[in-house]
Amino acid sequence: MNTHLPSAENNTINLIADIGGTNIRLAQATVKAITDSDTIDTPEVDINDIETYQCKKFATLAEVLAHYIEAKQLNAQVINACFAIACPVDQDLISMTNLPWQFSQKELKQDLQLNSLSFINDYTAIAMAIPLLSENQKVKIGGGTSVEGKPISVCGPGTGLGVANLIPLTDAGNGQWQCISGEGGHIDFAPINEIEQQVKDFIYKIKKRVSYEQLLSGYGLEQVYQALLFINEAKENITIKDKLSAKDITTKALNGTCSICDKTLTLFCNVLGSFAGNLALIMNSQGGVYIAGGIVPRFIDYLQASDFRARFESKGRLSAITKQAPTYVITEEQPGLLGAAAYLYNIG
Questions:
Q1: By Cβ atoms counted within 10 A, which residue in 114, 143, 156, 293 is the most buried?
Q2: What is the mean pLDDT of each successive set of 10 residues along the chain, which is 348 residues long?
Q3: Is residue 264 a contact partner of residue 254, using CB atoms and an 8 Å limit?
Q4: Which long-range contacts (CB under 8 A, 24 or more apart) does 233-239 make?
Q5: Could you tell me whether strands 23-31 and 12-19 are parallel, antiparallel, or unpaired per DSSP bridges?
Q6: Domains recognised in the chain with CATH numbers
Q7: How is the beta sheet containing 78-85 ordered, strand by strand?
């Protein structure tokens, strides 16, 4: 899709950030300068001067931003900023969930003397990064062929299960992507076989409502492991020594030292395939469905060998839609920063 980018001025800085509960990553972004008559299919975005700071070492967001601006000697520059943050951004007042940081977007812009400031949800940023990914920043899983200019979906098992979608729009003849985010990870889990029903029943005793996030996340892996331990080894009471972390479950599954861990990871991959296929049906995601997050990139080969793609495609009479749509795992290490840059340029 064609995208016009704003022309770059020598004294203009595009400041981007990926703000999490533990770390904040700050960087600067530049793009290939173009004239009004030019169009390009994929913007060339360069992210540089990346710095990572521990949030707990700063009292406020303004403090860490001011530190970066001072360290990079940007005080005399015109700064346009876009920050991806792991919390809702639809109100002027932002309160972070896992940090004692609370601030007004308007006041932050004024205090730091920014020319422009946008806050976006962290999964909006990941979604916006997708059109900029090269073949080296993603791995294709199974078949399917992307259709240019068609919707794209992304989901990401991590701390939770993030979901977002990209819709192509045309404004004054210029193509742009519009991100539609939501809470798709919290839709009701639908088991498709007996073992998945048993896992759902086990989790239901704990949670009283079972969403896909209850399986497709870090703590979801742990719950599935405990459920399969209960089912396969008749463990009526799960003790502390029986509880493994998501990282340990994945490691033991990959090195073949725990059969229950292997079954856990297999079920995880299969359920992820069904969920990703559901997204493809909901949005008719012929542009592709992408898997993000910190979990899946650790076992791409395992995912390839699982029934992920078969479950993705298995949608009855409408399987033609999912068979057409390709699936990818995002391997880019900084999709939040890349997406913040993409968002900044789309609205520039």
A1: 156
A2: 44 92 92 48 78 94 97 94 90 88 96 95 92 94 94 93 91 80 92 97 93 96 95 74 90 96 98 98 97 95 98 97 97 93 74
A3: no
A4: 233/260
A5: antiparallel
A6: 1-133 (3.30.420.40), 184-330 (3.40.367.20)
A7: 45-54, 23-31, 12-19, 78-85, 116-121
